[in-house]
Design a protein that fits this description.
One of its GO terms (molecular function) is omega-amidase activity. The protein is α/β, with parallel strands linked by helices. The protein contains 7 helices and 15 strands. It binds the ligand NC(=O)CC(=O)C(=O)O.
Length: about 280
């Protein structure tokens, strides 16, 4: 278990517009990381697929190798020159001729300290609303991934991953203080589910949750809901964006989490003699 006694952080959630111009998208992300630094932030979180329109037909074309691709080089440099942690939303990653939806995490020295490949791909079929089959273009990741930020432990998921409470529960079990989900819900599923899911993940695990979406572009084939947000371990929305291109700067006070864990100790009240959530890969 980590003990986040004195660790308060100021996080930037960068709700960027995504265009068809990959290099321009990267350049804007770098500028906004610099701006976050000048506003006192030590952590910047980018949205899902911030270098590419969310489109099965484009993922392979925009994909790159990690860590030697254009995006990784820029994020590593941005993290290093601003002395910040950067959670690089996600990019299409090319590896062994497969494409993954992958989040990279960079420390203040510009080192790659974590990588999360989206575990649950967005395959849904809701007649009259949303039909998307991400697995037509992407392969799923097969691991849970965390990283350490000073004394704080952070669990990673991407978008559809946030619908799976077991994954977040395992992060909680591993001692995560904060869950980060770069995500891009659409304008059909965003209104009923986005905020509810983020608040649930925060409340049930008594963690902070940061969810970073691209800004809404009504001309794109997939229209993102926006509404990036930060929720505290009480389930309260601390800050929420609207649909526009904008950034949130939020102070996270982790003593709140320590207090809530003590006051409502669900973490130690689980009846694992009746039910359990287990990490199958790491359990014999
Ligand atoms: N885009 C996603 O991965 C998930 C999503 O939009 C959802 O509703 O779930």
């Amino acid at each position: 278990m980590t003990s986040p006694t004195s660790t308060d952080i100021r996080a930037a959630v960068l709700q960027l517009s995504v265009t068809a111009d990959k290099s321009a998208n990267i350049a804007i992300a770098v500028k906004r990381i610099q701006l976050a630094k000048s506003n006192g932030c030590t952590l910047a979180v980018l949205p899902e697929c911030f270098t590419t329109p969310y489109d099965n037909a484009l993922f392979r074309k925009y994909a790159e190798i990690i860590p030697d691709g254009e995006t990784c080089k820029a994020l590593s440099q941005a993290a290093k020159s601003n002395k910040m942690y950067v959670v690089g939303g996600s990019i299409p990653e090319l590896c062994d001729n497969k494409v993954y939806n992958t989040c990279t995490v960079w420390d203040p020295n510009g080192n790659l300290i974590a990588k999360h490949r989206k575990v649950h791909l967005f395959d849904v079929n809701i007649p009259g609303s949303t039909c998307f089959k991400e697995s037509n273009a992407m392969s799923p990741g097969n691991t849970l991934n965390t990283f350490q930020m000073g004394t704080l432990k952070v669990g990673l998921g991407i978008c559809h991953d946030m619908r799976f409470s077991e994954m977040a529960a395992l992060y909680q079990k591993q001692g995560c203080d904060l869950l980060i989900y770069p995500g891009a819900f659409c304008t059909e599923l965003g209104p009923p589910h986005w905020s509810l899911l983020i608040r649930f993940r925060a409340l049930e695990n008594q963690t902070f949750v940061i969810a970073a979406s691209p800004a809404r572009d009504t001309k794109s084939s997939y229209v993102a809901w926006g509404h990036s947000m930060v929720v505290d371990p009480w389930g309260k929305i601390v800050e929420e964006a609207n649909e526009k291109d904008m950034d949130l700067y939020v102070d996270l006070d982790f003593t709140l989490r320590e207090n809530i864990k003590r006051q409502i100790p669900t973490g130690t009240q689980r009846r694992t003699d009746i039910y359990d959530t287990i990490d199958v890969k790491n359990t014999k």
